[in-house]
Amino acid sequence: MKHLIDCAMKREKADLVIKNARIFNVFTGMLEEGEVAVKAGRIAAIGKNFEGERVYDGKGGCLLPGLMDAHIHVESSMLSPEAFASLAVPRGTTAIVADPHEIVNVCGVEGAEYMKEAFARLNGGEPPIDVYLQLPSCVPATPFETSGAAIGGAETERELSRGLFFGLGEMMNFPGVLSGDGEGLRKIEAAHAAGKPVDGHAPGLHGEALCAYRAAGILTDHESLTAAECREKVARGMYVQIRCGSSVNNIADAKDAVDAYNFRRFVLCSDDKNAKDLATKGHLDDALRRLVQSGLEAKYAIAAATVNVADCYKIPDAGAIAPRYFADLVLVDGLENFNVRAVFKRGVLVAENGKPCFKGDERYLPAAALGTVRIKRPTASDFAIEGHGGRFRVMEVQPYGLQTEEAFVPAPVGPFSVKGTDLNKLAVVERHFATGNLGLGLVRGYGFSGGAIGISVAHDSHNLVVLGDDDEAMARVVALLEEAGGGMALVREGEEDVFPLDIAGLMSSAPAEEVISRTGAIAEKARSMGVKPCYEPFMTLVFLSLAVIPDLKLLDRGLFSLGKWGFVPLEEI
User: Fold this and answer.
1) Is 193 in contact with 214 (CB distance < 8 Å)?
2) pTM of this prediction?
3) What is the predicted pLDDT for the residue at 173?
């Protein structure tokens, strides 16, 4: 404290002085002229004529607080924590509220411990990014699927009582909350007892159902579908997370709900961001650009990525450029393009001109995160579908979306082949305990033909999901995924290709550039097999087992209907 005071009073030199930059004040929404004096990792003062051990020339740029992602699953980038940081930090990201839901569903709490340690080891133990880990609330996401771990109420109470977790991750089982499910409420109560925030997941909830969900003390939601829904959730005391991810974004609707009175209740998040988008479009800088281009005033957008996040999660001394606040700073060209020139973490330059200035080449790879694909290997006959003269349920995937609808096609009496039709077979193979569970379904309109593709990323239990029109090829894809320890695989006549995701079957230990090039190459091969432009060849598959998104989905135990909240048969007689 004394050093900060002495620096502000110019009795001591600053460690760093940033000059010739316009300073954005999140409390007033205005740009200020002045210098920022940094001492011991914190901002000592904003003023003029400071002396510093180091001086950084802002060259007329705009200085913002470090950008904070209010909700992200790092695993969805398919990058290791080290590779993720190498792409996100140069884009201005200095803090993330991370829900390791994916890896915990595979590896249990040891998966979260791995994530925390991998980030903590960056830059010789002085990481360029703060990571606030949430304890996943839904492991498994529903009681209808086989996950690699199970975290109940007792485990939640134990884990939230120690220092690993910052809060409770998104409560996706909103039907359980509304019905008063004992285990779900016990988890929420554990977070409240520990004084920790609870994130939400409440697509389409309104009226009394929304009130009931909020009455549980759930703080946020990133699934709002319309401006009216955003306004209602804010009116009921929630923070609305404006989502700008690779798979889904609600910028167009959410920005229409923001006004001069309620803007402090909106926070920016990416949820899921793939490696290619991080490298080419950016992270939160991309979201800020898109929000401003959509017509939202820059001052509201910046607040949503900085001070609002800190206030929402009660993160002290973060999210603003003001005395005593941590010197997490981002220098951008301007408040329209948000091109990042430099990033400072605790007053240390950690990225400049799009490149990291920190050490992050080494990978921390504990045994708990490796060798996680354990299957009872199926044969081609396990993918056969027999009809009995009724009608088959079919999943129809909404173009450019995650939701599916239920349709029906006539079922023959005897073996059923999808070759030459607009149907594909879909399979989900349990991969955690080698149970031999194999769910079978049908998808219409995907466009794929001539073999099979598969991936070991499948929300939220992350079993293997395989699509194809050839039973032998589907069985071979499963074998390739097992041999690789997880990944993305493709089989067509005369060709096999696989890209390993060696970390929990979710992420690659390879450098970011290799992840981008190889995942892009195998996706293009799948695209050449007819996948329609409205679907991502592999990434759409990832969501076809996500039971908490409407309506018909496939789990390792069979077809599941969210509307019916239970299993339904493939064939109706």
Assistant:
1) no
2) 0.94
3) 84
Q: Please check the confidence at residue 225 and state whether its pLDDT lies above 90.
A: no
Q: What value, to the nearest 5°, has the Cα angle with vertex 181 and ends 178 and 182?
A: 140
Backbone CA torsion sign across 140, 143, 149, 153: positive
Tokens of residue 393, six digits: 């349920």
Predicted pLDDT of residue 81? 98
C-beta neighbour count of 217 within 10 angstroms = 15
Instruction: Give the 3-state secondary structure of 444-512.
Output: ECCCCCCEEEEECCCCCCCCEEEEECCHHHHHHHHHHHHHHCCEEEEEECCEEEEEECCECCCEECCCH
Q: Which residues of 360-381 are buried (b: 16+ CB within 10 A; e: fewer)?
A: beebbeeebbbebbebeebeee
474-496 average pLDDT score: 97
Q: Give per-residue pLDDT as tens, 310-363.
A: 999 999 999 999 999 999 999 999 999 999 999 999 999 999 999 999 988 899
- Rg of the chain's alpha carbons, rounded to an integer? 24
User: Is the separation of the CB atoms in 437 and 427 below 8 Å?
Assistant: no
Domain boundaries, the chain: 63-351, 370-572
Q: Is the pLDDT of residue 549 over 90?
A: no
- CATH tag, 63-351: 3.20.20.140
Q: How far is CA 559 from the centre of its chain?
A: 25
Q: Are strands 62-65 and 566-567 parallel, antiparallel or unpaired?
A: unpaired
Residue 194 DSSP class = T
